[in-house]
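Quick one - inputs below.
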Amino acid sequence: MSKSNVIEERAHVKLGPKDCVLGLDIGGTKIAAGLVTRDGSLLGRMHRSPTPARGTSDRMWEVVVKVCEKALAASGNPKIKGIGVGCAGPMVWPDGVVSPLNITAWRGFPLQRRLKEHFPKIPVRVHNDAITMAAAEHWIGAARGLDHALGMVVSTGVGGGFIIGNQLVDGGLGNAGHIGHVVVDPTGPSCHCGGRGCLEAIARGPSTAGWAVEQGWTPHSKEASADAKTLASDARDGDEIAIAAFARSGEAVGIALASVTALLDLDIAVIGGGLVQSGPLLMAPMRRAFAYHAGLKFQKRLRIVPAELDQTAGIVGAASLIIKSSNYWNPRDE
Amino acid sequence: MSKSNVIEERAHVKLGPKDCVLGLDIGGTKIAAGLVTRDGSLLGRMHRSPTPARGTSDRMWEVVVKVCEKALAASGNPKIKGIGVGCAGPMVWPDGVVSPLNITAWRGFPLQRRLKEHFPKIPVRVHNDAITMAAAEHWIGAARGLDHALGMVVSTGVGGGFIIGNQLVDGGLGNAGHIGHVVVDPTGPSCHCGGRGCLEAIARGPSTAGWAVEQGWTPHSKEASADAKTLASDARDGDEIAIAAFARSGEAVGIALASVTALLDLDIAVIGGGLVQSGPLLMAPMRRAFAYHAGLKFQKRLRIVPAELDQTAGIVGAASLIIKSSNYWNPRDE
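Output:
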């Protein structure tokens, strides 16, 4: 991104009570868009579409445009003040050139520039989807009003984002918040990042279910697939291996949280994603491990709570890059 | 601290080329003070005194005052523009009410208020000593000019501080930077913080030497005490247990650094303290463990370098709380 473009994209956008911003959430499973007002509520309904499993970069782009246009049309095509995007990483930030691990059609795809060409004369801002999710929980969710927060997701992957001193943390290259790659067990399983013992290698849904299968678990229902959702159901039925699998993943999350708040002296950690919906199966062992490893008084004060926002969090957080730029959009001049 | 006091203490202090600030460094072993100019250099010589091993809170205070007064007298008692203090933690921040773990005479000691009473009409700012050390390395040391940095010390304890986006990170209660309490081995030794497997429990000097003793090491020289300094000397002589002890501690530091930069996407980590002076004994295994666990491209870019500043770093960093307050002193209004 040119310097002038960075500065243009940094400008504060003032919204009236009837103005809105397009929030766009691009992940490996689905693409979602919706219009967000200045108080963080959705104007009309969001629109979703599955992410094309195969196909070219152009095909993927066409789906993104269609989702945006349908979301706009559903609210009578209002004039929008900007577009905020949360996209699966990694990416070159703040340029918005994306190479999502699980969207193989896009490698070095200039998402920000393409959106600007398609929707001219409004700012377009792109950030990592785990970071926009954290922004949403801080803006209108479980962390609202608190200055020092972690928002994290335990799902197919494990990711997160930080708010420190009421400001979103970007990190040097826009990659701050990768809690999934905190080492929780140095002799643990190898991770697809290339490291070993990362939180994600243990606690992500497929790894949790995979460990259970290794221990001899098979789904109680013959038709069910051996995934984290089935595992949760079987754990609630009292399956000991399934319960142990969630305990192992929960403990890994608790250890990572103890380390994170030692480093950042946080007020709150908000946890969302599929595995948290399994409730105490994950959360109880997580709290036990946290209590065991967090020895200092300021660590113990960390509040650990489930996410409050639903599946619209991605869209709302994306829109916050435009609507609440003073908190959530701070690229630095080079 | 009252709100008005917080605001008074936040005011920016403008220094002319001949002005100076008193920097005060209070640790469990020594108390040091010196005058620092606006470019971070020392005016005249620093003054040091051992920390009284026993005695009352008043006795400790008397030594602090004497060290300050001797440092001032050594430069002809110039008018000072403020006092910056790095003190061993924990403390209530930004109030400067300190209870240093290894200075038992002080429990809830109102250091900031007492200094203000003794040196009236100038601002007095107190922060954790590991944080002021990080500020010094960022201001005029190995991390200067970089926006995202960790400064850490591996010594009798293991501590640190962060600079993110060119700003010192305080955390909610002023305790950010406790890298010594990142969990590097969940089944590792118990830590004096009450947790288990913390970096400090493995890598601090006494733990490094203690582990070697457990494995059968005794100092090669009969008169030497079985501490980290002797251990380093014996390791350089080729003692295999001593070499293994440094390798174990270095690996623990490397694991913690991989986790830290996954979370904060840093440019540089600056490492100081006694154990780093042992050179490749610690640094080589540390780099190996970091390379093994840091899988993501943005993690691998972290530069890991030894500290540049000498024993004056504590004084210079303390003074930076006054001299460079726009970067290093950001208490938030309540």
